[in-house]
Amino acid sequence: MKSFFSLSLAALAAVAAAVPVEHGPGRVGPHGGPGSSKYSSSAVAASTTAAAATSSAVVAASSSVAVSSVAVSSVAVSSATAVAAVASSSSTPTVYLAGDSTMAKGGGGTGTEGWGVFLPYSLTGVKVVNDAKAGTSARSYTNESRFQDIADVVTSGDWVIIEFGHNDGGSLSTTDNLRTDCYGAGSETCTSVNGDIVQTYPTYITAAAKLMTAKGAQVIISPPTPDNPCETGTCSYTAPRFTAYANSSAAAVGSMATFIDHGQHVANAFEALGPTTVDAFYPNDHTHPSPTGSTIVAAQFVLALLCSKNPLAAHVVNTTSSITGSCV
C-alpha cells in the first residue's frame, strides 16, 4: 500500500517526532551522540499508531515535495546480532547501515536525528538494521569489530550501506583520538603517537566492503553528508576528499559495490531550499540535522539510489518524481 501526498515542514517535524527511536551508545568527540536508552513496547505502539495516521510512514524531500508512505514492514533494528535468529529463518533480505551519528539513531544529541532512522519508510520487502554508531570513523568502526559483527550475520542477497567521513579527518602527529585515519588515497600507512599503525580511509572501507561481498552481500559506499552548506548566508558545497575516496573504494571492490554520491545530492537539495530553511535544520551545530532535516537527507539517499540503478532500488516505494532533485 502506498500513497503520495504533500507535507509542510511544520507537519513533517510533527510526524518525525512520532517515529520511535532507540538511541545507540554515546561516543566521545565532536560528532558523538547521546547515551543509551530503549523505547518500550507501549511507546512503539503509540508511535506506530501516530505514524499510521499519516498513511503509515513518511519520507520527505522539501517543504513542497511529494511524500511517499508505506506500511511499516521495513523495521529499523539497532543490532545486527539481535536479528540474526530472525534473519536466518526468513528469506527477506536485510539492509545493514554502517556509519556515524549522522546516520545513527539519536543523531548528535537532543533535537537531532540520524537519516538512517527514516530510510526504512522508503523501502519495502526488506528489513533495515541500523548499526550506525555515533562518533565512529572508518578506522574505529573497523578496530571496534563493528564491520566484522555485520559480516558475521550478513548473507547472500543482503545489502550493506557504508558511509563515513565526519570523524575520519585530523592529525596523528601530536595526539591520537583513535578515529583519525592516515591521510592518503591509497595504501599508505601512518604511525600514531601511540605507536599504532594506522591505515587510510580507502584501505579500511575497501577491506570492510570485501568482508561483505565475500558473503554474497552487495555494498553501497557513500561519502559523508555535508555540514550545513548554507551557514554563511549563502549555500555553497565543495566535496570533501572522502567523496573521491569512497568512489575509488567502490571501484576497488568491483561489481558487488556501488558508489552513491549522497553528499552532493543533499547539498543540491539544501541549496534549492535556501539558507533560511536549511539553517533551521541544524539546532546544535553544523553537522547534525533535526528530524525534519534528516528526512530530507534520507530522501536524497533514496533519490541517489534510484539514480544508481543498484538492485536495492527495486525495493524503493518512492519514484524519482516524488522527490525533489535530479541525478548527479
UniProtKB/TrEMBL annotation:
Keywords tagged on the record: Hydrolase, Signal
Signal peptide (from-to): 1-18
Alphabetical list of Pfam families matching this protein: Lipase_GDSL
Key word Hydrolase present: yes
An MF annotation (GO) of this entry: hydrolase activity, acting on ester bonds
SUPFAM superfamilies: SGNH hydrolase
Stored Gene3D superfamilies: SGNH hydrolase (3.40.50.1110)
The family this protein is said to belong to: Belongs to the 'GDSL' lipolytic enzyme family.
Protein's name according to its UniProt entry: SGNH hydrolase-2
Annotated organism of origin: Coleophoma crateriformis
